[in-house]
Specification:
Strand order of the largest sheet: 2-1-3-4-5-6
Structural class: alpha/beta
Number of helices: 10
Number of strands: 6
Helix content: 40-55%
Distance between the termini: 52 Å
């Protein structure tokens, strides 16, 4: 079996590589960021990708986004996410097409080396290894209305944004300054978990979240 590891911590990266080597699993590449992860996957076509979620440069969701992109290029590529965090929206995307060849473990709950190695083999073989806490957190998030985190004014700004108005037009409609609108929109993005991305429009995603939420309420 050949794996590619993506982990920004030098010690953790070396530790995982050493554990795998002890049981005869070859590490084809070990990288520290999402861009290098994609390059390594394309070059080595591994049997398994082991990736952290938060890596440079923004330490938000680079690892998971890179893994998702790799699975689009190589359908069925086994991916085992090992992280301190549950990134709700991207975790859902990772599991959207089924759990075959997918794992998501929380670092603090990996208490036994043998269990970790078993998860590695299971995911590489097309099985799954999903921590129950990951599932619980995803279900809890799916039950919450994302707009509950917004203030009344932020919800109002998002509602006007959903009409397709520019920041200047929103300011005019709500009789506030354009700077205030920009601050509110920044808060909306943060509270809805919409991190900056090269390939996604946060404004559109925020509006879609608003429309989905209001449709459920009605």
């Amino acid at each position: 079996m050949r794996v590619v590891i993506a982990e920004d911590s030098v010690l953790l990266r070396a530790g995982v590589q050493s554990l795998l080597a002890d049981v005869g699993i070859e590490t084809a590449a070990a990288v520290s960021n999402g861009d290098d992860l994609l390059v390594a996957i394309r070059e080595h076509r591994p049997d398994l990708v082991i990736a952290d979620v938060r890596m440079p440069p923004t330490f938000t969701d680079e690892g998971l986004r890179a893994a998702l992109a790799a699975r689009k290029e190589i359908p069925g590529l086994p991916v085992l996410v090992v992280s301190q965090y549950v990134e709700g929206s991207y975790a859902v995307d990772l599991l959207a097409e089924g759990t075959s060849g997918v794992g998501y473990l929380l670092k603090e709950r990996v208490a036994d080396v043998a269990d970790f190695l078993e998860a590695v083999r299971r995911v590489a073989g097309g099985g799954s290894a999903i921590d129950p806490d990951v599932i619980a957190q995803m279900l809890a998030r799916s039950r919450r209305d994302p707009l509950d985190a917004l203030t009344a004014r932020e919800t109002e700004v998002l509602g006007v944004m959903a009409q397709g108005l520019s920041n200047a037009a929103i300011a005019k409609a709500l009789v506030i300054t354009q700077g205030a609108v920009e601050n509110h929109i920044g808060n909306i993005f943060a509270k809805l978990g919409l991190e900056a991305s090269r390939d996604e429009n946060r404004r559109i995603r925020a509006v879609l979240t608003y429309l989905d939420s209001t449709a459920v309420r009605t």
